[in-house]
Amino acid sequence: MKLTGFVCTRCARRQDAAGKCAQCGADDCVLDLAQRGVCELLTDMDDRRRDVHEARLRWVAVGIAMVLGAAVVVWARWLLILVPPIPFPFFLRVILLMSVLGVGLLTGAMKLWPARQRFGFARSDEPDPP
Ligand SMILES: [Zn+2]
Q1: pTM value?
Q2: 16 Cα: distance to centroid of ligand 1 (angstroms)
Q3: Of 7, 31, 53, 89, which has the fewest CB atoms closer than 10 Å, so is most exposed?
Q4: Cα(130) to centroid(ligand 1), Å
């Protein structure tokens, strides 16, 4: 499907006319959707935003997992000695606990706060014809 019209890359508003953005007034950010590569550019911008968002959530999840893991080591050491019943050394159990907590927190956070797609309309699996 070929898109028509113009889009502002600053505020993501679509409009029919070129020139200044009708919403934010930016005059150097309005792109023609019919031009080659514009949809790929918008999709790349969305992907970059998603990567930054995911990296931010990952750091928060790792931090919380480390704090929770340290709290278990200090106050609930018996939990790590009982579970899992595999003969892992203690420090491996701590690392395993922190990893599971971190992955779980990151997965939950990505579901709770997904990255917002500003240019979802431009996303297409088929490349532009040459
Ligand atoms: Zn705008």
Answers
A1: 0.76
A2: 13
A3: 89
A4: 30
Å from CA of 29 to ligand 1 middle? 7
- Radius of gyration (Cα) for the chain, nearest Å? 23
The residues spanned by each domain of the chain are 1-35, 48-119
Per-residue pLDDT of the chain (130 residues; tens, 9 = 90+): 678 899 999 999 999 999 999 999 998 999 999 999 999 999 999 999 999 999 999 999 999 999 999 999 899 888 877 766 667 788 888 898 899 999 999 999 999 999 999 999 998 765 555 5
Which residues 6+ apart lie within 8 Å of 33 measured at CB?
3, 4, 5, 6, 7, 14, 39, 122
Question: 110 with 57: CB under 8 angstroms?
Answer: yes
